Amino acid sequence: MPLLYVVFALLLATEASAADSDSPLVFEFKEIADGVWAGVRPDSPRFPVMGNTTFVISDEGIVVFDGGGLPSMAEQIIAKVRSLTNQPVTHVVISHWHGDHHFGIAPFLEIFPNVQVIAHRFTDRAMRGSTIDYIENYATFGEKRLPVYQQIIETGKDAEGNLATEHDLMVYRQIIRDFDQVRPDFDRVKLTLPTVVFDDRLTLRSGERTIELMNLGPGNTEGDIVMWLADEKIVSTGDLIVLPSPYAFNVPPRAWAGTMRKLNQLEYRTLVPGHGSVQYDPSYVDLLIAVADDIANQRDAMIANGVEKAEIADKLDFSAWEEQFTHGDSYIAGYYTDWFEMPFRQAAVKELSGEPMVEIGPRKKQESEHGK
Does residue 252 sit in the same domain as residue 310? Predict the structure, then answer.
């Protein structure tokens, strides 16, 4: 049997075994239109947090949008693709610079050496700068953090003596429980840099398909891009949109609301978020716009009324919003507080200054074009 077919058979076996286990690194694949597939990672906040994927099949090849935060996730995508078509993967698109969407994509280049890796210019700059230095900590995460988490579980307190919440304790137990499964993948992580960059819009022609890649404005990062399939009315958003609770680290509320309004102007029928379940109407995005507007309006009103800038973050009132995101679920509520409300308070104030939400310096350790 040719070696290539042996590789593909092994990848299919990997996909099947992962799906049959309680692995935290499993995509659930669903065809959302003819030849368009979404891979959704169930329980999206579960450690390690990993982004969704979308791939589009044509008679000339496959375009993948967000190819996996760890190598085994890329291999699941490749296995699924090979189960559907013999066409090669021609493009892997990176929605933004956060590693849970691209640290695993090296297997695409190993199997499809002519693949193009596409990203926004800001994403390319971030991936070549200090913002990506944290990749060096992947392989040593357990050695450094697991003993700390175990200590907190045993004492109920962190290093500063603060009581741990039940949500924190649950998360730490889950991380410890899952770590042996994911550690081998951490050791395989490589930085795969873009080969094609663009600023506002890039149109891909893949057989009969027209695929639009667009930067609609700032959101989760300055370089967020979405993939738009106009014929199918499908949009994949990266972390511009995240469920069940949004991310707000370095997210400027006024600018984010404007970007999401442009997103809704596409009049999509299907939306694949960066994390969480596929959406079939704009109601969740409408909710995000409403909360972003409210927080920006509260902040601006306080400025107009002479409230000191240093006091604004604590004075912002989120009481109208938590239930609409968490629906009383304590598991989601913990992430809502830690990943949305608290960082959004800081980002709302930072937006006032006009300074970059993320500063990019030189890398401490330089990477080769396609890996370490």
Answer: no
pLDDT tens readout for residues 74-119: 999 999 999 999 999 999 999 999 999 999 999 999 999 999 999 9
> DSSP string spanning 184-220?
HHHHH------SEEESSEEEEEETTEEEEEE--S-SS
Do 206 and 69 share a structural domain? yes
Same domain for 172 and 221: no
- The answer to whether residues 39 and 113 belong to one domain is yes
Contacts of 141-149 with C-beta under 8 Å, sequence gap 24+, read 141/186, 142/179, 142/183, 142/186, 145/175, 146/175, 146/176, 146/179, 149/175, 149/176
Residue 87 is classified by DSSP as: P
Domain count for the chain: 3
The amino acid that residue 129 corresponds to is: G
- Starting at the earlier edge strand, list the strands of the sheet with 36-40: 28-33, 36-40, 53-57, 62-65, 89-93, 116-120, 196-198
The answer to whether position 50 is within a domain reads yes
Residues 30 and 100 placed together within one structural domain of the fold: yes
pTM above 0.70, yes or no: yes
| Rounded CA separation 90/110 (Å) | 13
Question: Is 368 contained in some domain?
Answer: no
Q: Are 211 and 58 in contact (CB under 8 A)?
A: no
| β-sheet bridge partners, residue 116 | 91
